[in-house]
Amino acid sequence: MRASRCLLPISGAIFLFFFSCRSETKEDIATIRPNIVFIMSDDHAYQAISAYNDKLIKTPNIDRIANEGILFTNASVTNSICAPSRAVILTGKHSHINGKIDNLSPFDTTNITFPQLLQNAGYQTAMFGKLHFGNNPKGFDEFKILPGQGDYYNPTFNTEKGDTTIVGYVTDIITDLTLDWLEKRRDSKRPFLLMYLHKAPHRSWLPAERHYREFTKKTFPLPETLFDTYATRGEAARTAEMNILEHMILNYDNKVFPEVIEELQIKDRKLFDPLEKMTPDQKTAWNSVYAPINEDFRKRYPGMNDSTLMVWKFQRYMQDYLGTIAAVDENVGRLLNYLDREGLSKNTMVVYTSDQGFYLGEHGWFDKRFMYDESFKTPLLIKWPNVIKAGITEDEMVQNLDFAQTFLEVAGALTPSDMQGESLVPLLKGQKEKWDRDAVYYHYYEYPAEHAVKRHYGIATKDHKLMHFYYDVDEWELYDRKKDKQEMNNVYEDPKYADVVNEMKQKLEELRLKYKDNDSLSNQYIKLYKEKGWID
Ligand code: SGN
Ligand code: CA
Questions:
Q1: What is the per-residue pLDDT across 308-321, written as a single tens digit (0 to 9) for each?
Q2: Which of 41, 101, 104, 149 to mutate to test the pocket of ligand 1 (most atoms within 8 A of CB)?
Q3: Which helix (H) or strand (E) holds 197?
Q4: 20 to 30 A Cα–Cα from 513, which one of 148, 289, 366, 425?
């Protein structure tokens, strides 16, 4: 039997909204106003998901989403930093249009977001975890969000009813809150949008006790580009402050105790206490594992050179970073099991992604921000039974810009015409012929600022990537993405690539026109920084 379809206007909405009502058939069940579960972690590199590559960690629960659905191998962000990425996701607009260009400026809440549209279209909506906007999200029936970056241990949450602090480990608690909402406050008569947003694996990488006990015993393969000298790149890569050897803080990042740092007379290390929120019991447990590591470091440090110290810091970094991911994976499993148990999975689209990628020692770095692949690309796995064929891989260039329109289409709601992405639904349905994007646009702004990554914008096609660094430099870089997967050779000045440079520059201008970005807008954002006193 064919489903009948009706369109109902919802009054009182800012735009006109429509949703489709269908008489259900068994075959159609998955396409009738499905639930949407959007899982996003903070700084989760695709290199640390075994569906992409299992050399660092096994993530069987996250992998389940790809095994039962689709794995995107060429998903990227438009601006590789936390709050701007979230603003792009919620608004379906580039940073220069939605105004949230960096982590510093406030999110303009007059922007229309897709959760508001879904709420208006009859969805029940809830958000748990990290948002990082500095203001509360609009369009949610319920939210419990971490203030700013939030804490790993005993975190405080902002809610509509005030703040609440919960003892325990943040990844477990965000999941408890999510499951509690599903169990007790979900309206079974309505579809829902659930945004389940982890703090992990964000710096300063504090794993749960069950995981640091295990992960501090492991060693990990070194990335081939750990000792990159940035020989062919411009000034931006050389002056960035995210090198593991030079900029990772022994105390804060690598958990070397302040007294050990003082005893070893290590200079230039700001002393933080990443454990300050822990209870005495949590600190005792932590010290029982990290004190022997400190003792070992105290003995070995005098004999270390730059390269052995780099490797030691890399290993410590990976142990803690990946330890926090183990908890994310377990908790994703708890949520997927709940959906299965309650019979919700068959009509629920589950998305797993990160707010951006991250460097796990590639090019010697941690952190993100650059348009180079490890931070430009982001993991993306989606399952939606009966619509997405299980176990497929897709290499089309999709972006976080596309989520809003995807979810609106999935929900049968109308998309505002000024959103700038493309719905991923054709790719989810295997209708590749309906997808014709051949390039994506990127623009990063937060400079001068922490990690000192210069302002840049650029374009990526499947074959090449062209980047322009500006503000206090005027430098271009070009990479051959097919021949040089690790982006080690900037070929911008290579005469063999002169035609490619011209073509890419032309395409870049076309994209900037399409997305309404230009130098005068960039200058306005610089002026804004000056007015705020963030730069001279
Ligand atoms: C903090 C971190 C930085 C990180 C930014 C932005 N420093 O400031 O390393 O780049 O967050 O991250 S820390 O000393 O506070 O840990 S983002 O994911 O929120 O954009
Ligand atoms: Ca982030």
A1: 999 999 999 999 99
A2: 149
A3: strand 192-197
A4: 425
Q: What is the pLDDT of residue 76?
A: 99
Strand duo 398-399 + 464-469: pairing = unpaired
From edge to edge, which strands make up the β-sheet containing 456-460? 440-444, 456-460, 464-469, 475-480
How many angstroms separate the alpha carbon of residue 372 from the centre of ligand 2? 16
Is residue 103 in contact with ligand 1, taking CB distance under 6 Å?
yes
Q: What per-residue string of b and e applies to 433-471 under the rule 16 or more CB within 10 Å gives b?
A: eebeeebbbbbbbbbebebebbbbbbbbbeebbbbbbbb
Measured CA to CA, the distance from residue 411 to residue 34 in angstroms comes to: 7
What is the percentage of the chain residues whose pLDDT exceeds 90?
89
- 79: Cβ below 6 Å to ligand 1? no
CA of 82 from ligand 2 middle (Å) equals: 4
240 C-beta closer than 6 A to ligand 1:
no
136 lines ligand 1 (CB under 6 A): no
What does pTM read for this prediction? 0.94
Dump pLDDT digits (tens) for 116-140: 999 999 999 999 999 988 889 999 9
* Res 274: pLDDT: 80
Q: Which residues pair with 192 in a beta bridge?
A: 124
Residue in 107, 450, 453 to alter for ligand 1 test, most ligand atoms within 8 A of Cβ: 450
Res. 349 pLDDT band, cuts 50 70 90: very high
Question: pLDDT for 357-369, tens place per residue?
Answer: 999 999 999 999 9
For ligand 1, atom 5, name the residue with the nearest CA. Answer: 450
Half-sphere exposure of 420 (CA within 13 A, CB side): 26
526 with 471: CB under 8 angstroms? yes
How would residue 268 be classed by pLDDT, with cut points 50, 70 and 90? Answer: low
Work out the mean pLDDT of the chain and round it to a whole number. Answer: 93
User: What number does the ligand 1 atom closest to the CA of 249 have?
Assistant: 14
The amino acid that residue 263 corresponds to is: E
